[in-house]
Structure formats: C-alpha cells, structure tokens
Amino acid sequence: MGPSTVLVTSVERPDAPADTIEMLAVDDEGAWIVQTPRLPIKANGSGDVTAALFTAHRHLTGSSEGALARTASSVFDLLANTLESGDRELALVSSQQAFAHPRMQFEVTRVR
Predict the structure, then answer these.
(1) Given phi > 0 = left and psi -120 to 50 = alpha, else beta, which region is 10?
(2) Helix axis angle, 46-61 relative to 64-85, nearest 10°?
(3) How many angstroms separate the CA atoms of 46 and 1, rounded?
(4) pTM beyond 0.70
(5) pLDDT, tens digit, for every residue of 22-31?
(6) 6-110 has which CATH code?
(7) Cys-Cys link to 24, which of 8, 15, 82, 99 (CB 3.0-4.6 A)?
(8) What is the Cα–Cα distance from 72 to 34, expressed in whole angstroms?
(9) In the chain, what are the domain boundaries?
(10) Can you tell me the distance from the alpha carbon of 102 to that of 22, in angstroms, rounded to the nearest whole number?
C-alpha cells in the first residue's frame, strides 16, 4: 500500500548551512539527500517541474539516487536561468539542455 518512492523538496534541517536547501529521496533501496545553494527566487510551478523531472530521471536511470542527483542539477539550473532572465515565468525552454543533460554538480549522500 502507498508509494514505493517518495521525494521531499525544500528540506530545511537545523544543522544545514543557512544558505542551502535540500531534497530527499526514499525508496526500498534506501534514502538519499542532496544539498544545493539556496537561490533568492520562489517560482510558481517549480514543484511540478521537480516532480516531473524526478519521475523522468528515475525512469531513465532506474535509481532514486541517480534521479535525485540529476533532478537537483536540472532544477538548480532552471531556477538560476529563471532568476537571470528577470521573468516571473520559469525559463523552461532555455533550460531544456539542463533537463536532458544535467551538469551533475551536486553530491548525493546516502542517509539510510
């Protein structure tokens, strides 16, 4: 019963650096966390994009750990591109390369 994989976004732990934000993925194989710099942006739709990218990356890699690493990089670049554009709308089109070929810039750590 229930989902076999869970993704938690916008994790804020008291012992994490103040200028960071984390994502956590949990499945039957374990739990993984990834930390990225916090960007000064709140964009509508970023949670939907995160869920879609995690699902796609999970399907492609067969791994929640790999999907988490790819999703963190993809979403970070999307938000950085959006922030740089100065627009309120997510920079989805200009970020397509980050979705298809993430830069793999953040380390994923196993927590369980």
Answers:
(1) left
(2) 140
(3) 28
(4) yes
(5) 999 999 999 9
(6) 3.40.1190.20
(7) 8
(8) 7
(9) 6-110
(10) 17
